Amino acid sequence: MHNYKRDNTSMVLAMRTHADTQSVPPQERLEYWSAYNRKALVGLRPSSLAQQGLLARQVNQHIGEIGLADITGNDHFVERDPLLVRQCPKDSVFTCHIKRGKAYFVQNGNVMQLEEGEMIVYDTRTPFLLGFLTQMHEHLIDMPIENFVRRTGISPPQLPMKLNADYQLSRMLLSLLGRTLDECMENTCLQESSPLVGVIYDTLGTLMRQQSNGGGNATSELSRLLAKRHIHEHLIDPHLTPSRVAQAVGLSLRQLSRLFSQDGTSPAAYIWEQRAMRAYADLRNPAYRHLSIGEIGYACGYASQAHFSRAIKDRFGEAPSQVRHNSQD
């Protein structure tokens, strides 16, 4: 039984929006889909050769800094050409998870075929085309480029990157990330500050790094990932320690420290880094403007406002009050 929690009055549920072309006249569906996505996701140009026109449904929501979309439809393709890149700028990295169907992706001279269960990670600042050859279902993750780079260690020149199940660890990580996205989209009471944000970044970063390196030690990678997930789920506990994390995932403290050293960090440093990142995001989030700076710090696991202010200043070069003020400009 835990004795830590945010005050219910400070909880903000992730807002959802949706679109469905079924009730739209066939001749207006493409423009309707384009207009909705321009606001909810990214500027793109849809097209469909299907006899009945574009039949598609989309649900969007944000958890923290991450946007999520659940999209189903018939065969169609979407294009983001150079004109749309200029007219509708978007500094994000997208990850598309093919839940059902077959697809193809074109960007920077790369042409990739995508099978069910595979993912493609790409930069929205570069023109692309994504097409579906059959009835389709995809989950899409929308991550700000700056945060994506900082939290995964992957840089834009490494994109686009196809993620498949060629290795045992790849299969495990793809399955884990897929289940996490399912959990996000199925939970209608998901909170804006859900710990699943950190879980998504960590799982995706691990998957991309091991794919680039040609496999890896499945046991150690999964143990480290489970430890990180436990940390994200208990960040608001001021009593969270490396010893408790090790106990939760069935490792000794020495084993846990050895796993984190492979990332160039320690369990304690990782805990405080994730608290700082979460607090920084909350300070910049308009949904939390009603909270004082001290309340945000406490909700992120900081026992005192002085410690919180010092940690944010050391990590981001600005005091918490400056972070909040600058986000309103």
Automatic annotation (TrEMBL):
<comment type="function">
    <text>Regulatory protein of the TOL plasmid xyl operons. XylS activates the xylXYZLTEGFJQKIH operon required for the degradation of toluene, m-xylene and p-xylene.</text>
</comment>
<keyword id="KW-0805">Transcription regulation</keyword>
<dbReference type="InterPro" id="IPR009057">
    <property type="entry name" value="Homeodomain-like_sf"/>
</dbReference>
<dbReference type="GO" id="GO:0003700">
    <property type="term" value="F:DNA-binding transcription factor activity"/>
</dbReference>
<keyword id="KW-0010">Activator</keyword>
<dbReference type="InterPro" id="IPR035418">
    <property type="entry name" value="AraC-bd_2"/>
</dbReference>
<dbReference type="Pfam" id="PF12833">
    <property type="entry name" value="HTH_18"/>
</dbReference>
<protein>
    <submittedName>
        <fullName>AraC-binding-like domain-containing protein</fullName>
    </submittedName>
</protein>
<keyword id="KW-0238">DNA-binding</keyword>
<dbReference type="Pfam" id="PF14525">
    <property type="entry name" value="AraC_binding_2"/>
</dbReference>
<dbReference type="InterPro" id="IPR018060">
    <property type="entry name" value="HTH_AraC"/>
</dbReference>
<keyword id="KW-0804">Transcription</keyword>
<dbReference type="GO" id="GO:0043565">
    <property type="term" value="F:sequence-specific DNA binding"/>
</dbReference>
<dbReference type="InterPro" id="IPR050204">
    <property type="entry name" value="AraC_XylS_family_regulators"/>
</dbReference>
<feature type="domain" description="HTH araC/xylS-type">
    <location>
        <begin position="225"/>
        <end position="326"/>
    </location>
</feature>
<dbReference type="InterPro" id="IPR020449">
    <property type="entry name" value="Tscrpt_reg_AraC-type_HTH"/>
</dbReference>
